[in-house]
Amino acid sequence: MTREEKELRRQQRERQRQVEMAAREAGRGPLDVPFLMLTLMLTGIGLIMLFSASFPMAYYAGESPAYYLIRQGVFAVMGVAAMLAVGRINYERYRVLGKYILAISIIMLVLVLIPGVGITRNNATRWLGFGELFTFQPSEIAKVGVILYFADSISKKKERMHTLKYGVLPYGILLAVIAVLMAKEPHLSGMVLILGIGAVMMFVGGNDLVWIGAGGGLAGLGVWAYLTGKISYNSSRIAIWQNPLSDDVELMRGAGYQIRQSLLAIGSGGLLGVGLGKSRQKFMYLPERHNDFIFAIICEELGLIGATLIMAIFALLIIRGYWIALHARDRFGALLAVGVTTQVALQVFLNIAVVTNLIPNTGISLPLFSYGGTALVIQLAEMGLVLSVSRQMPPS
Questions:
Q1: CA angle, 289 then 131 then 52, to 5°
Q2: Domain locations in the chain?
């Protein structure tokens, strides 16, 4: 190859690189295909497992066996459309939305606590909506608000995040307000999730280890008080967590019934499972089999191998999300990706930990799997935020 040809090749590569950079600056770069495919894969598997877990309940309720699948499928289509739409917009345009979404979510959390306004289910008042027609949890919107607002605000405080006045107190007060409102519902799992998201984003944003350690110490103190009964929130759940066979063992009823049925489902699955669609626990034995405890049905039908594969796909999604954060164009994009990915990671861990009795039952759903149309749309829209960040990564 002659010197002129080499120079021509170099100039072509340079022009191509400039075109790619210009496209990314305009928000027109390619979506991150691995992250997109992993998200779609989990959504598809989630719909299959939801149908398997829910058709007996739909049948006994006099509905079509595909009742829950159809409803969730409609929201899945809406969610994928929202994900692709959000992903194609320059993420810088979302900066201004954070404070408004956070303010609206706090107002909704207050409304939930007003008698006659909030909707109560299973001794918890966490929902707003119109009866059974349309309901949603304001905590889902609060997660988005925290992620957007923290990403925007922290990204502007490069050198001040290590200070108490600018880097700790504003965010700590916001998180405390949200935590108190959610504790009143009560919604312990959602509270832990939002506190975890906020803490991780503050740490990534530049908080000193002193403040992180102090926050971790307070959190540890709260966990200790909860587990030892110093905090009286649903102490029966602590007793059941410590000994699932402590109440009404013969009748298999009482406070520990749900976790016992969950452990029976997991144990029945063994290594290879009883087969897709062949679960026995979903036939009106395991409560919330299509929602918070759907992972127990996964373990029963697909066995340890199938459940491990699903957890591996979640792990790959989380790793890819953090990879996108590491390669983001700026601090705002990196913090957005960190916030969304941390939410998925914490929620998956907490759900599986509850289902396997690693931690007390806190009532938390499995992302992209558990039944809940509004939550699914919001989760997929959040995946769109990460995809938007991926479109503007500097070319390697």
A1: 20
A2: 31-390
